[in-house]
Amino acid sequence: MANRQNAATAEHAPDHAQLAERFRPVFQRIAEGALERERGRKLPFEPIEWLRQAGFGALRVPLADGGSGASLPQLFRLLIELSAADSNLTQALRAHFGFVEDRLVSTGDEQRQRWLKRFVDGELVGGAWTETGNVGLGQVITQVSPRADGSWRLNGRKFYSTGSIYADWLDIYAQRSDTGEDVIAVTRARQPGIQHSDDWDGFGQRTTGSGTSVFEDAEVEAGNVIPFGTRFKYQTAFYQVLLLSILAGIGRAAANDAARLVRERTRVFSHGNAPRVADDVQVQQVVGQLGAQAYAAEAIVLRAAEALQAAYDSHFLGDAEAEHQANIDAELESAQAQLVVSELVLRASSDLFNALGASAAREALQLDRHWRNARTISSHNPLIYKARIVGDWLINGNEPPYVWQIGNGTRG
């Protein structure tokens, strides 16, 4: 039934103009408070609530199930717009959209429908996968243990718990204590056994709700321990393209800010090219270049989103070979996109200062946030390894890794 349902609803998805018209007033409201939140490191609980009430978290849920029925390219176009308003919010919702995607392709109609209804009702999911400290490569310390009544208890500590502070549920990478199997434990975020801390101290993406989550006998309901091996196969590519949509949004915001400030600027240099900055051909060139960089970043992200859509569609075709190839394509496209989009946006977020004077460095403008945020996002998955993976495919035909881990290596 799930296969037929997906095939039936895909034909009736709204066009992008309809979706954008619905959410743009919310994006505008979010943008209006972005500088204040950045200056004061104010967590965006209210903006998250606006998105929740607007049904943003149910974008990918089929129309027949009460959602918007958005395709993946439509989703990422909207995420680029949200990121231009405030890139922190998109990252705060990254785990949510990943879990939605996983539930869309999951087996078991009853459980699938239960989760889709929760998304339509506005419930959001945060993530807690990474462990820091004395953790070996591939080691999972967080444990989930079975109870006699069918429920589970979760114990452990995670960092980079992006979006968890705002969430109703948590998607947690853990290990079964009885079998040693790697699993996803999905638990209610608000319960006595869970403590969230906003202790992310990075110089960028300061209000994403990332930080430490501690689990002490937290309850996991029966049926909410999911074997990791059943996760949607294009998950790594999906999470990467979502980060790239954030970068593309940052690029758009940097270009827009530069154009606006040039338009408003009255002070000129004696050795400039015009009595009005907006008419200075060299300044126009800088802003034009920023616009082109933002355009290219968006175009690349949307190309990668099409590869993700193909991977999603292939899941329902019953052709294992075609699905495998679609997943290879999605991973390679996301890797190549990362290499180029990261460089485009990092350059744009620095070059925007060439169009302005020293006053652009003032704290009140927070123009440095574009570079800080872009640099933070670009550091998630090392560019050098992505370049090697693409090169290995092109030269030797070796498939990219679909899941990777981080931890302490051996000492030389």
UniProtKB/TrEMBL annotation:
Alphabetic keyword roster: Monooxygenase, Oxidoreductase
Acyl-CoA dehydrogenase C-terminal domain location: 249-381
A Pfam family annotated for this UniProt entry: Acyl-CoA_dh_2
Tagged with keyword Protein biosynthesis: no
Molecular-function GO terms, alphabetical: 3-methylbutanoyl-CoA dehydrogenase activity; flavin adenine dinucleotide binding; monooxygenase activity
SUPFAM superfamilies registered for this protein in UniProt: Acyl-CoA dehydrogenase C-terminal domain-like (SSF47203), Acyl-CoA dehydrogenase NM domain-like (SSF56645)
InterPro entries for the chain: Acyl-CoA_DH_C, Acyl-CoA_Oxase/DH_mid-dom_sf, AcylCo_DH-like_C, AcylCoA_DH/ox_N, AcylCoA_DH/ox_N_sf, AcylCoA_DH/oxidase_NM_dom_sf
Domain Acyl-CoA dehydrogenase/oxidase N-terminal, residue spans: 15-123
Superkingdom of source: Bacteria
GO biological process: L-leucine catabolic process
Protein name as annotated: Monooxygenase
